[in-house]
Every structure is written in structure tokens, then in C-alpha cells.
Amino acid sequence: MGDVYTGIQDERVQDLNDGEPGDGRYVLYWMQQSQRAELNHALEYAVHRANELGLPLLVAFGLMDDYPEASARHYHFMLQGLADVERALDERGIAFVVQRGHPAEVALALADDAALLVCDRGYLRHQRQWRATVAEQAPCPVVQVESDVVVPVELVSDKKEFAARTIRPKITRHLDRFLVGLRATPLKNRTRPKVSGEDLSDVDALLGRLKVDTSVPPVPLFTGGTTAAKKVLTAFLADSFGTYSENRNQPQTSDVSHMSKYLHYGQLSPVHIALEAKKKHGGVNLDDFLEELIIRRELPMNYVYYEPHYDTYAALPDFARKTLAEHADDQRDPTYTRGELEKADTHDEYWNAAMRELVHTGYMHNYMRMYWGKKILEWSTSPEAAYRTTLYFNNKYFLDGRDANSYANVAWIFGQHDRGWTERPVFGKVRYMSAGGLERKADPKAYIEKVDALVAEVEG
């Protein structure tokens, strides 16, 4: 193709089956991972193909009631974003429909009237299986277009990378070509295909109709959607970016971007975030920010793509499993049950504050996230039990949980993407973190005060 569609690099586009476009009523973009109407390579590719075929474009999202481990907290944030998508696509004359059902089944039903089906990309096991099912059963060509990372995973590496230092040069060599903007192309045929769907005008009402876990309620501190995400990014770049490097490991501060939750739902492109940061800033703050946004985010994409058991203890590196097994019988004092941990009922006031921040806000400062996980390993009856508990809390409460970064972050607690350290009880050669170290490097007392204020705000 030779980058025929400006800004859509060849490597982002993959034919998932064979065949030429048929006589359908529209081109279908099955939007599932990249839930946004701007700087979305899959969307713009679908517009180009619709224009070539002289057809209208239908964008569709499959809304399932039982998405793995998702709760009302996750659904509410996502639905706010989908309502934002509907408004933005309407302004471009593009039809958008949200239909209840398994995403693959929704896509296949709508594919019956499609000349071509375009889908975006997800890297988790079930997301890949959905797309494989659609490609196998759809009566029309299916084209997958990557818009979730800056540089496509297979282009970066053909294997599971050891650490950030090994993947960094492999990503960096492609950045000049992939870190570019993407123009929104007008849709020529603005006929609206008549397809019924859910009403997004009242997100709370729609949420009430879904059969979802309501034990973890929505949080008022964060609003979903591209519009909200861009406001948060603008404020961060204007107010906090100048001290990002200095304060990003200082949990008592709030000099963080809060972009991970928006990236999780595809509500903002990582390319957009990087270009906005480069436009306004430079120096060490920009370097450190892009390291987190691109290298440290796309290493986990590599991990889940090339590690089939990414959500299990068995996927940990050999050295980690070996050293933790050697110390499995070490004395653990104290130990806590999952219920005690969930209630933030431990002897460690810093850990309790971190758990309270997570449960009440759906977020935890990243430095505390590391400390939090290390203590679960220290206080659990076995490393395997610690892994299960950490992943359970991560997926249940974090707004940005249940994605590639989540699985890699949890695995990092147990030695993934890390090296061996000085051997010690319980941890063996896996990295250890202590309350004393936290006190030396940050101000955890002030962090507790910050969490208290946040919880009070949430509880009204």
C-alpha cells in the first residue's frame, strides 16, 4: 500500500481473511478497543475505504453484560466515553450504534449487510479470539487496523522481550515514522444506515439496564471520554509537567498525567498524547514522560502478545519462580487474609492508605502501587496466593485494570521485567520494598493526608 492513506502506516493494517468487498449497504467499523472519534487509525482507514466504495460508514460497538471482571465502575466510565464518541461521530456525519450482546456476535450480525468490515486491535487473549472468530465467520473481508500503540508489536520484536532496556532501542528506531498526526478525512456518503441500538443519552439509565457487578460503584473523581481526557491532559501539561521528573515518584504530590485510564479504554491515542507533550515541552521531563507513555506501556503489550499465560503465576521468569520457591517456607509475620487486606486492615498505615485510595477512587499513585504489591507478597501465605490476590484487587478496583499493563505490572511485583537482587527472606532475589525506604524517598505521611481528603471527597 505504501502508506497510501496519510498517517496510516502499512504495518498497522492486516487482512484477517481473504476476499474483495461485496455488495453490502455500508462499510462497517467494529469499534471495540479504540473507543474514540479522533486520531483513530481504524476509523480513518474505514472512512477511506467507504469513500472508495461510495458507501456510507457504520461504526458499531458490542456491549456485553459480563465483560471479564468488569464492574459498574468500569462500565460507567466506558459508557461516558461511548456517549462522547456518538456526539463526535455525529458531527462528522458518521452513524454510530451500540448494540447489546457479545462483541463478536454483534459484529457478525451487522457484517451481513457490510461490504467490508474494519476492526481495531486488542492484545488480550479474549480480544484476539473475538477478532479471529469474526474473521472466520464474516461474509465479507475483515481488515484489522492497529491504533492502540505507537509502534505495532510485531514490527518492534518477534519475541517476548526481557526488559525495558531490551525493547527500548527496537521501539525508538521507528518513532520518527510512527509518531505522526492523523488527519480526519470527511466521509463522502453521509447516508445513515438504519440500525437500532442503545440510547446513550442517559448513561446512568443504560448502566441500570445492564447485568453487571454493582459491588464496585462508579467514582465521581474521573469522567470518561475523549473530551474529558483532553481536558485532563491539557491541565497536566500546563500545571504539572514542569515537575514531572522530580515528583513522579512522590505519591504525596499529584504531578501525574492520569492518562492510563483513558488509554485503557482507547479514549485517547498514545500518539496524540505524545505529540501534545512534545509540542509544549522538552528536556528531561519530556524524556521521562515519553519513556512511561511509550516504552513502559508497549513492553506490556509485547508481554501479553508473546506470553500465552500472561495472567498466571507460571508465566513469571524462571529465576523468580525458583527463588520464591526456595523461600516459600520462610516465616511470614504478619500474614493477612484477602478480606483483611480488602478492608485496609493492616498494621501498615501507608499500605492502608494506598488500598483506600484504590477502593474509593479507582486509582493509586504508581509509586505506591509498587509498594502495595510488594507488601501483598510479603504478607501472604505463599507467593502463588499473593499473585492471585494482587491480580484480583488490580482487576476489581483499578479503572485501568484488566489490560496488558495490569498483567505486566502485577507480574513485575514477582520479578517479571526485572533482575535478581540481594537475597533476603520471603522475597529471595526478587526486588524488595520497605516502609523505611518509602520514608527516605518520599513523604508517606503527607500521602495519607492526601488520601484522606480524596476519600472524603468521594464520600461526599
Features:
about 450 residues; alpha/beta; Serine Threonine Protein Phosphatase 5, Tetratricopeptide repeat; DNA Cyclobutane Dipyrimidine Photolyase, subunit A, domain 3; 3 domains; six-stranded mixed sheet; 21 helices; 6 strands; about 50% helix; about 5% strand; globular; Deoxyribodipyrimidine photo-lyase; Crypto/Photolyase_FAD-like_sf
Describe, in plain words, how this protein is organized in 3D:
The chain has 460 residues and is an alpha/beta fold. It contains 21 helices and 6 strands. A 6-stranded mixed beta sheet has the order 1-6-5-2-3-4, sandwiched between helices. β5 (114-119), α4 and β6 (142-145) form a beta-alpha-beta unit. It is globular. The N and C termini lie far apart (55 Å).
Let me know the number of strands: 6
User: What is the beta-strand fraction?
Assistant: 5-15%
CATH class of the largest domain: Alpha Beta
* CATH superfamily annotation of the largest domain: HUPs
Largest sheet: 6 strands, mixed
